[in-house]
Design goal:
By secondary structure, the chain is α/β, with parallel strands linked by helices. The protein is built from 12 helices and 12 strands. The radius of gyration is 20 Å and the shape is globular. It starts with a helix and ends with a helix.
Amino acid sequence: MKKIIVLTFILLAIISCNSENNHKIEKKSVSNIMVDEIGNEVEIPEKGSKTISLAPNLTEIIFFLDLQNQLIGNTLYCNYPSQAEKIAKVGDLLTLDYEKIVELKPDIILMTIEGNQKNHYLKLKDLGFDIYVTNPRDFNGIFKSIIAIGKLFGKEKLARGKVDSLNSIVQNVSKIKNNGKKAVFLISVRPFIAASKNTFINEYLLKTGLENGVVSDKINYPVLNPEELIRIKPQIIILPKSMKNEFEAILNENVLLKNELKTTEIISIDENIYFKPGPRFVEALLDFSRKIK
Protein backbone atom coordinates (compact mmCIF):
# COMPACT_ATOMS: atom_id res chain seq x y z
CA MET A 1 0.00 0.00 0.00
CA LYS A 2 2.85 2.34 0.86
CA LYS A 3 4.37 1.95 -2.59
CA ILE A 4 1.05 2.68 -4.23
CA ILE A 5 0.60 5.85 -2.16
CA VAL A 6 4.05 7.08 -3.11
CA LEU A 7 3.55 6.26 -6.76
CA THR A 8 0.26 8.11 -6.72
CA PHE A 9 2.14 11.31 -6.00
CA ILE A 10 5.40 10.92 -7.88
CA LEU A 11 3.98 9.58 -11.15
CA LEU A 12 2.61 12.96 -12.19
CA ALA A 13 2.06 13.33 -15.92
CA ILE A 14 1.79 16.55 -17.87
CA ILE A 15 -0.68 15.43 -20.52
CA SER A 16 -0.23 17.06 -23.92
CA CYS A 17 -3.00 19.15 -25.38
CA ASN A 18 -4.14 17.20 -28.44
CA SER A 19 -3.54 13.89 -30.15
CA GLU A 20 -4.89 12.42 -33.39
CA ASN A 21 -8.20 10.58 -33.03
CA ASN A 22 -8.64 7.74 -35.48
CA HIS A 23 -12.31 7.23 -34.55
CA LYS A 24 -12.01 3.52 -33.89
CA ILE A 25 -14.88 3.92 -31.41
CA GLU A 26 -18.20 5.13 -32.80
CA LYS A 27 -19.12 8.53 -31.32
CA LYS A 28 -22.61 9.60 -30.33
CA SER A 29 -23.98 12.96 -31.38
CA VAL A 30 -23.41 15.81 -28.95
CA SER A 31 -24.73 19.32 -28.62
CA ASN A 32 -22.11 21.11 -26.50
CA ILE A 33 -18.41 21.37 -25.87
CA MET A 34 -16.57 21.70 -22.55
CA VAL A 35 -12.93 22.52 -21.96
CA ASP A 36 -11.27 20.19 -19.48
CA GLU A 37 -8.76 21.22 -16.82
CA ILE A 38 -5.75 20.94 -19.11
CA GLY A 39 -7.32 23.02 -21.87
CA ASN A 40 -8.65 20.36 -24.24
CA GLU A 41 -12.10 20.54 -25.80
CA VAL A 42 -14.35 17.62 -24.80
CA GLU A 43 -17.74 16.72 -26.25
CA ILE A 44 -20.46 16.62 -23.60
CA PRO A 45 -22.02 13.15 -23.80
CA GLU A 46 -25.73 12.56 -24.19
CA LYS A 47 -27.93 12.11 -21.11
CA GLY A 48 -27.42 8.72 -19.51
CA SER A 49 -24.06 8.14 -21.18
CA LYS A 50 -21.64 5.65 -19.63
CA THR A 51 -18.27 6.52 -18.13
CA ILE A 52 -15.08 4.91 -16.86
CA SER A 53 -13.18 6.47 -13.97
CA LEU A 54 -9.42 5.94 -13.87
CA ALA A 55 -8.78 7.38 -10.41
CA PRO A 56 -10.24 6.75 -6.92
CA ASN A 57 -11.02 10.43 -6.30
CA LEU A 58 -13.00 10.62 -9.55
CA THR A 59 -14.95 7.51 -8.63
CA GLU A 60 -15.82 9.13 -5.30
CA ILE A 61 -17.03 12.26 -7.08
CA ILE A 62 -19.26 10.15 -9.34
CA PHE A 63 -20.92 8.52 -6.33
CA PHE A 64 -21.07 11.88 -4.53
CA LEU A 65 -23.14 13.23 -7.42
CA ASP A 66 -25.36 10.13 -7.56
CA LEU A 67 -24.03 9.19 -10.99
CA GLN A 68 -23.04 5.62 -10.10
CA ASN A 69 -25.57 4.12 -12.50
CA GLN A 70 -23.53 5.61 -15.33
CA LEU A 71 -20.22 4.21 -14.06
CA ILE A 72 -19.30 1.04 -15.96
CA GLY A 73 -15.61 0.75 -15.08
CA ASN A 74 -12.97 1.92 -12.62
CA THR A 75 -9.62 0.86 -11.12
CA LEU A 76 -8.57 -1.73 -8.59
CA TYR A 77 -7.97 1.09 -6.09
CA CYS A 78 -11.45 2.56 -6.39
CA ASN A 79 -12.74 1.11 -3.12
CA TYR A 80 -14.96 3.87 -1.73
CA PRO A 81 -17.85 3.72 -1.29
CA SER A 82 -18.06 -0.06 -0.98
CA GLN A 83 -20.29 -0.26 -4.09
CA ALA A 84 -17.33 0.99 -6.14
CA GLU A 85 -15.57 -2.32 -5.56
CA LYS A 86 -18.30 -4.12 -7.50
CA ILE A 87 -17.73 -2.09 -10.68
CA ALA A 88 -15.78 -3.74 -13.53
CA LYS A 89 -12.04 -3.19 -13.09
CA VAL A 90 -9.99 -1.89 -16.02
CA GLY A 91 -6.55 -1.66 -14.40
CA ASP A 92 -4.67 0.18 -11.69
CA LEU A 93 -2.47 3.26 -11.46
CA LEU A 94 0.31 1.73 -13.57
CA THR A 95 -1.41 -0.52 -16.10
CA LEU A 96 -4.68 -0.45 -18.03
CA ASP A 97 -6.61 -3.25 -19.69
CA TYR A 98 -7.29 -1.60 -23.03
CA GLU A 99 -9.20 -4.60 -24.36
CA LYS A 100 -11.57 -4.42 -21.39
CA ILE A 101 -12.08 -0.68 -21.91
CA VAL A 102 -12.88 -1.19 -25.58
CA GLU A 103 -15.27 -4.01 -24.66
CA LEU A 104 -17.14 -1.76 -22.19
CA LYS A 105 -17.58 0.99 -24.83
CA PRO A 106 -17.66 4.05 -22.53
CA ASP A 107 -18.97 7.33 -23.93
CA ILE A 108 -16.37 9.25 -21.92
CA ILE A 109 -13.41 8.46 -19.68
CA LEU A 110 -12.38 10.48 -16.62
CA MET A 111 -8.68 10.88 -15.81
CA THR A 112 -6.60 13.04 -13.47
CA ILE A 113 -3.13 14.57 -13.70
CA GLU A 114 -2.13 13.18 -10.30
CA GLY A 115 -2.13 9.42 -10.63
CA ASN A 116 -2.74 8.78 -14.33
CA GLN A 117 -0.01 8.59 -16.94
CA LYS A 118 0.54 10.40 -20.22
CA ASN A 119 1.02 7.20 -22.23
CA HIS A 120 -2.37 5.91 -21.02
CA TYR A 121 -4.02 9.13 -22.11
CA LEU A 122 -2.42 9.06 -25.53
CA LYS A 123 -3.29 5.40 -26.10
CA LEU A 124 -6.94 5.96 -25.14
CA LYS A 125 -7.13 9.00 -27.42
CA ASP A 126 -5.64 6.93 -30.21
CA LEU A 127 -8.38 4.35 -29.63
CA GLY A 128 -10.91 7.10 -30.23
CA PHE A 129 -12.22 7.76 -26.72
CA ASP A 130 -13.37 11.13 -25.40
CA ILE A 131 -11.46 11.94 -22.21
CA TYR A 132 -12.03 14.61 -19.56
CA VAL A 133 -8.92 15.36 -17.48
CA THR A 134 -9.04 16.97 -14.03
CA ASN A 135 -6.15 18.80 -12.38
CA PRO A 136 -7.08 19.94 -8.85
CA ARG A 137 -4.20 21.75 -7.15
CA ASP A 138 -6.05 23.10 -4.13
CA PHE A 139 -9.43 22.82 -2.41
CA ASN A 140 -11.02 25.22 -4.87
CA GLY A 141 -9.63 23.03 -7.62
CA ILE A 142 -11.43 20.03 -6.13
CA PHE A 143 -14.65 22.04 -6.07
CA LYS A 144 -14.07 22.98 -9.70
CA SER A 145 -13.66 19.32 -10.64
CA ILE A 146 -16.87 18.34 -8.83
CA ILE A 147 -18.84 21.06 -10.64
CA ALA A 148 -17.27 20.17 -13.98
CA ILE A 149 -18.17 16.49 -13.66
CA GLY A 150 -21.67 17.52 -12.60
CA LYS A 151 -21.99 19.68 -15.71
CA LEU A 152 -20.58 16.92 -17.89
CA PHE A 153 -23.41 14.61 -16.84
CA GLY A 154 -26.25 17.11 -16.54
CA LYS A 155 -26.09 17.58 -12.76
CA GLU A 156 -24.41 20.97 -12.47
CA LYS A 157 -27.09 22.39 -10.16
CA LEU A 158 -26.75 19.46 -7.76
CA ALA A 159 -22.95 19.71 -7.90
CA ARG A 160 -22.95 23.43 -7.11
CA GLY A 161 -25.30 22.90 -4.17
CA LYS A 162 -23.10 20.18 -2.72
CA VAL A 163 -19.98 22.29 -3.26
CA ASP A 164 -21.60 25.22 -1.42
CA SER A 165 -22.26 22.94 1.56
CA LEU A 166 -18.69 21.63 1.57
CA ASN A 167 -17.24 25.10 1.20
CA SER A 168 -19.16 26.41 4.20
CA ILE A 169 -17.43 23.75 6.33
CA VAL A 170 -14.04 24.71 4.90
CA GLN A 171 -14.65 28.36 5.72
CA ASN A 172 -15.49 27.55 9.33
CA VAL A 173 -12.34 25.47 9.72
CA SER A 174 -10.31 28.30 8.18
CA LYS A 175 -11.00 30.41 11.25
CA ILE A 176 -8.65 28.20 13.29
CA LYS A 177 -5.31 29.81 14.10
CA ASN A 178 -2.18 27.98 15.22
CA ASN A 179 0.27 30.88 15.34
CA GLY A 180 2.04 29.70 12.20
CA LYS A 181 3.60 26.57 13.68
CA LYS A 182 6.00 25.03 11.17
CA ALA A 183 4.84 21.66 9.85
CA VAL A 184 6.00 18.99 7.42
CA PHE A 185 3.43 16.74 5.74
CA LEU A 186 5.08 13.45 4.75
CA ILE A 187 3.49 11.14 2.20
CA SER A 188 6.35 8.64 2.49
CA VAL A 189 8.97 7.94 5.15
CA ARG A 190 11.45 5.69 3.35
CA PRO A 191 12.53 7.86 1.68
CA PHE A 192 11.08 11.01 3.22
CA ILE A 193 8.79 12.57 0.61
CA ALA A 194 6.85 15.68 1.59
CA ALA A 195 4.08 17.77 0.12
CA SER A 196 5.25 21.23 -0.91
CA LYS A 197 3.23 24.44 -1.07
CA ASN A 198 2.16 23.64 -4.64
CA THR A 199 -0.14 20.75 -3.66
CA PHE A 200 -3.72 20.41 -2.47
CA ILE A 201 -2.33 18.65 0.64
CA ASN A 202 -0.70 21.94 1.62
CA GLU A 203 -4.17 23.37 2.16
CA TYR A 204 -4.68 21.16 5.21
CA LEU A 205 -1.89 23.20 6.75
CA LEU A 206 -2.95 26.53 5.28
CA LYS A 207 -6.58 26.24 6.40
CA THR A 208 -5.60 25.41 9.98
CA GLY A 209 -3.04 28.17 10.44
CA LEU A 210 0.11 26.09 10.03
CA GLU A 211 3.18 26.98 7.96
CA ASN A 212 4.55 24.45 5.49
CA GLY A 213 8.25 24.02 6.18
CA VAL A 214 8.83 22.52 2.72
CA VAL A 215 9.28 25.16 0.04
CA SER A 216 9.77 24.00 -3.54
CA ASP A 217 8.85 25.98 -6.64
CA LYS A 218 9.53 23.16 -9.09
CA ILE A 219 8.81 19.88 -7.29
CA ASN A 220 5.40 19.21 -5.78
CA TYR A 221 6.58 16.28 -3.68
CA PRO A 222 10.33 16.65 -3.02
CA VAL A 223 12.47 13.95 -1.43
CA LEU A 224 14.06 15.10 1.84
CA ASN A 225 17.15 13.63 3.45
CA PRO A 226 17.38 13.54 7.28
CA GLU A 227 19.66 16.58 7.28
CA GLU A 228 17.03 18.66 5.47
CA LEU A 229 14.39 17.57 7.95
CA ILE A 230 16.67 18.64 10.79
CA ARG A 231 17.30 21.99 9.08
CA ILE A 232 13.57 22.67 8.75
CA LYS A 233 13.04 21.96 12.49
CA PRO A 234 9.31 21.25 12.18
CA GLN A 235 7.15 21.66 15.25
CA ILE A 236 4.67 19.20 13.74
CA ILE A 237 5.17 16.24 11.41
CA ILE A 238 2.12 14.68 9.77
CA LEU A 239 2.39 11.22 8.22
CA PRO A 240 0.18 8.29 7.15
CA LYS A 241 -0.80 6.02 10.02
CA SER A 242 0.36 3.02 7.99
CA MET A 243 3.90 4.45 8.12
CA LYS A 244 4.04 5.43 11.79
CA ASN A 245 5.91 2.30 12.93
CA GLU A 246 8.37 2.64 10.05
CA PHE A 247 8.99 6.27 10.99
CA GLU A 248 9.71 5.29 14.59
CA ALA A 249 12.13 2.63 13.34
CA ILE A 250 13.95 5.27 11.27
CA LEU A 251 14.28 7.50 14.33
CA ASN A 252 15.76 4.60 16.30
CA GLU A 253 18.27 4.07 13.49
CA ASN A 254 19.26 7.74 13.39
CA VAL A 255 20.02 9.02 16.89
CA LEU A 256 20.80 12.55 15.70
CA LEU A 257 17.47 12.84 13.91
CA LYS A 258 15.65 11.40 16.90
CA ASN A 259 17.24 13.92 19.25
CA GLU A 260 16.50 16.85 16.92
CA LEU A 261 12.84 15.82 16.63
CA LYS A 262 12.29 14.91 20.29
CA THR A 263 9.99 17.91 20.83
CA THR A 264 8.26 17.58 17.47
CA GLU A 265 4.61 16.55 17.61
CA ILE A 266 3.90 13.54 15.38
CA ILE A 267 0.37 13.29 13.96
CA SER A 268 -0.78 10.24 12.02
CA ILE A 269 -3.61 10.45 9.50
CA ASP A 270 -5.70 8.14 7.29
CA GLU A 271 -4.11 8.42 3.87
CA ASN A 272 -7.14 6.84 2.21
CA ILE A 273 -9.09 10.00 2.98
CA TYR A 274 -6.42 12.72 3.06
CA PHE A 275 -4.62 11.87 -0.16
CA LYS A 276 -7.58 11.74 -2.53
CA PRO A 277 -8.60 15.11 -4.05
CA GLY A 278 -12.29 14.29 -3.91
CA PRO A 279 -15.29 15.27 -1.74
CA ARG A 280 -13.99 13.49 1.37
CA PHE A 281 -11.18 16.02 1.72
CA VAL A 282 -13.62 18.01 3.89
CA GLU A 283 -13.94 15.03 6.21
CA ALA A 284 -10.13 14.90 6.33
CA LEU A 285 -9.91 18.63 7.03
CA LEU A 286 -12.31 18.36 9.96
CA ASP A 287 -10.34 15.41 11.33
CA PHE A 288 -7.08 17.33 10.95
CA SER A 289 -8.47 20.41 12.68
CA ARG A 290 -9.35 18.24 15.70
CA LYS A 291 -5.94 16.57 15.78
CA ILE A 292 -3.94 19.79 15.92
CA LYS A 293 -5.96 21.62 18.57
